[in-house]
Design the sequence.
């Protein structure tokens, strides 16, 4: 088996349980399945932004993240791939989701394979993934896979896992989840994240400077 890959899931659902977390779990499971099919071990780590809401606001005011939030950011920057899922409000990502992105270092997501997904009340808002979320992460130089996944409330009613209609032709959500997971797994399998660059790696030690 090849070296293990770490996939971090960032989910911005505000309620418990939430459709956003449900979609995030489905995407994570499908991605793990695809990576295992390719011979990779997989670690999936979940960052629930709801649990860090107050800390995110503190970090915006002070410029520093501490405690569990700092550990969550460290998880994210060391991931081999990221699945980011947010509910849509007024046709765009939630304020909590955007606030979390705002406290990240501007280079934290550079080259990182990402899968974007969102939940909303009606399919009319599905294009927000491409005119709102994708430009945000393109600006941050993340490697966003072409397929995004949107789930409206009706999609869950038709979904086979909910015990209703199992015909995949009647609901494209399962197929779209599988396609997006395959795309993310391809990129995660081809690239390993060695973690953030050490800004002091080339700084000589005191011993070296005294010898010089």
Sequence:
């Amino acid at each position: 088996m090849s070296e293990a890959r770490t996939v971090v899931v960032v989910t911005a659902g505000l309620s418990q349980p939430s459709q956003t977390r449900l979609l995030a779990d489905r995407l994570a499971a499908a991605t793990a399945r695809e990576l295992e099919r390719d011979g990779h071990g997989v670690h999936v780590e979940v960052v629930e932004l709801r649990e860090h809401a107050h800390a995110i606001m503190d970090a915006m005011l002070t410029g520093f993240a501490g405690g569990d939030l700092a550990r969550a950011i460290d998880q994210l920057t060391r991931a081999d791939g990221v699945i980011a899922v947010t509910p849509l409000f007024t046709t765009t990502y939630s304020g909590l989701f955007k606030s979390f992105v705002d406290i990240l270092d501007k280079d934290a997501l550079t080259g990182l394979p990402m899968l974007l997904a969102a939940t909303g009340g009606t399919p009319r808002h599905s294009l927000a993934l491409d005119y709102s979320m994708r430009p945000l992460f393109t600006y941050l130089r993340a490697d966003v896979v072409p397929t995004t996944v949107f789930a409206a409330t009706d999609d869950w009613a038709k979904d086979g896992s909910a015990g209703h209609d199992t015909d995949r032709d009647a609901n494209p959500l399962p197929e779209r989840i599988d396609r997006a997971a395959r795309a993310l797994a391809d990129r995660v399998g081809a690239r390993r994240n060695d973690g953030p660059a050490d800004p002091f790696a080339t700084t000589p030690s005191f011993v070296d400077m005294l010898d010089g």
Summary: The mean pLDDT is 88. The CA atoms of residues 195 and 201 lie 13 Å apart. The first strand starts at residue 2 and ends at 11. The beta strands are 2-11, 40-48, 81-89, 92-93, 113-120, 143-144, 149-152.
